[in-house]
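User: Please fill in residues for this 483-position structure.
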């Protein structure tokens, strides 16, 4: 049987509740819903950092952020890290990418840049664009627009301070990403070489700027959209920096200050976020159609996920930061291959770090000893209990984005099926949530005497997870030193 192709679609800051297949009955996402119906939907998938750069470095290497040394946005990846795409390329896969790479300075395919040796990505075809807005001349999306005599533009939508009408759908960054992938898929249709293509869409990350036509679909439906999850008084029980973010006391100011928004603003912003997800869905439909038309659907493993979530006003904050609430860390994950994956749903706790070894096993490539992820292979075929994989999931934030905090915010999370514990190491304070009794994570039980026993258990569990994220390399009995 030929080795499978991999179409790896990774969006930016997308929550599972943007999709019909995860229970949102208001959005229109038929293509991703179809992908989910034909594949395996993971109900409990989590990123390893709620911030782009460290999360992407983690799932591309199968290693944790503190292990890769890539813990912050715009932080370069050490050159000796090994990406799963490089391992696939070494095994004769043709690898391409469109959109975000987001590994700090580590953007070269293997050459020199800025006088520093770059990590080798394995991508032989790269259409790189870390942002939809014009910027560096190397932004491939900007060049694509220029070839069509177009300039990037967006404008406030109906005088909103928070929502913009972005590029028309046919010229949108999301559409461009999909088109680059379509070109690649069509070019490989007649060949025998297996391939991987990373469709790294910038949306639905802020700024919230879908095409006007997608926003207008929501014009008469805003009242149907629920307001953000915020319970009166809950901010008082959260960490100090959480309250500062909510009250817009940080420097620089937050682009979406919660307290300055009316209910209509919150609903319109959510509509824009969902509309960006609907455009993503339309482009996924084009990708699936191309696989069918070129006869490659049955031999292509399609992965759909996101690098992290988005607070979207929940708990009184927008964006991201040292927050480990479900909206920030819980991500969609769907794997689909007709005849190769038994359709269904898995409620197992899984991590994005598990993807890299899963792809290697699917391609028949040995998993290197430095990888820390646990392959999902056993869950893909319904041969046993698809709801068992990990006892807990782990996530970390090591001063990952600029924060006016002294000392810097270093925080870690461990989450079981029922509980979530977050330790903010700089302050020795934390958060503890009972997800069965309080699924909205509105009541912090860190100081509750009734939860002292489970708090101790989870602190031990967190310490164990941190210990096992220590780099397993060099292997025991081996050394990096010569002689």
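Assistant: Residues filled in for all 483 positions:
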């Amino acid at each position: 049987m030929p080795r499978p192709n991999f179409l790896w679609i990774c969006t930016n800051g997308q929550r599972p509740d943007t999709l019909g297949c995860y229970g949102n009955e208001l959005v229109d996402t038929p293509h991703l819903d179809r992908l989910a119906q034909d594949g395996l939907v993971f109900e409990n998938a989590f990123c390893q950092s709620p911030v782009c750069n460290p999360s992407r470095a983690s799932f591309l290497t199968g290693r944790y952020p503190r292990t890769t040394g890539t813990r912050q946005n715009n932080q370069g990846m050490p050159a000796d890290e090994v990406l799963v795409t490089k391992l696939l390329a070494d095994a004769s896969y043709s690898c391409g990418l469109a959109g975000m790479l987001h590994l700090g300075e580590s953007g070269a395919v293997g050459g020199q840049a800025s006088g520093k040796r770059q990590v080798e990505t394995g991508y032989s075809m790269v259409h790189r664009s870390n942002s939809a807005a014009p910027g560096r001349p190397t932004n491939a999306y900007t060049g694509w627009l220029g070839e069509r005599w177009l300039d990037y533009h967006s404008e406030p939508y109906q005088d909103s301070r928070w929502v913009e009408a972005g590029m028309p759908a046919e010229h949108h960054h999301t559409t461009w990403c999909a088109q680059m992938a379509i070109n690649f898929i069509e070019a490989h249709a007649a060949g025998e070489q297996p391939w991987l293509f990373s469709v790294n869409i910038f949306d639905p990350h802020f700024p919230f700027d879908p095409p006007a036509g997608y926003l207008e679909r929501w014009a008469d439906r805003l009242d149907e959209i629920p307001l953000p999850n915020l319970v009166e008084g809950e901010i008082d029980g959260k960490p100090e920096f959480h309250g500062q973010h909510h009250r817009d006391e940080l420097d620089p100011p937050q682009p979406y200050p919660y307290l300055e928004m009316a209910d209509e603003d919150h609903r319109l912003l959510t509509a824009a976020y969902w509309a960006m997800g609907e455009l993503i869905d339309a482009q996924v439909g084009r990708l699936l159609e191309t696989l069918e038309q070129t006869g490659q659907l049955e031999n292509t493993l399609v992965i759909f996920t996101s690098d992290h979530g988005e607070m979207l006003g929940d708990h009184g904050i927008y964006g991201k930061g040292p927050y480990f609430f479900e909206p920030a860390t819980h991500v969609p994950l769907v794997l689909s291959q007709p005849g190769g994956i038994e359709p269904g749903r898995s409620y197992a706790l899984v991590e994005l770090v598990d993807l890299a070894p899963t792809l290697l096993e699917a391609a028949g490539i040995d998993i290197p000893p430095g990888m820390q992820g646990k392959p999902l292979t056993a869950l893909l075929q319904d041969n046993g209990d698809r709801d068992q994989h990990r006892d807990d999931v782990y996530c970390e934030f090591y001063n990952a984005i600029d924060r006016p905090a002294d000392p810097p915010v270093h925080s870690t999370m461990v989450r079981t099926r029922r509980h979530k514990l977050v330790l903010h190491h700089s302050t020795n304070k934390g958060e503890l949530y009972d997800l069965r009794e309080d699924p909205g994570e509105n009541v912090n039980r860190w100081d509750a005497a009734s939860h002292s026993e489970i708090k101790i258990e989870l602190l031990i569990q967190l310490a164990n997870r941190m210990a096992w994220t220590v780099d397993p390399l060099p292997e025991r009995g081996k050394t990096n030193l010569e002689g």
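For context: The two ends are 44 Å apart (CA to CA).
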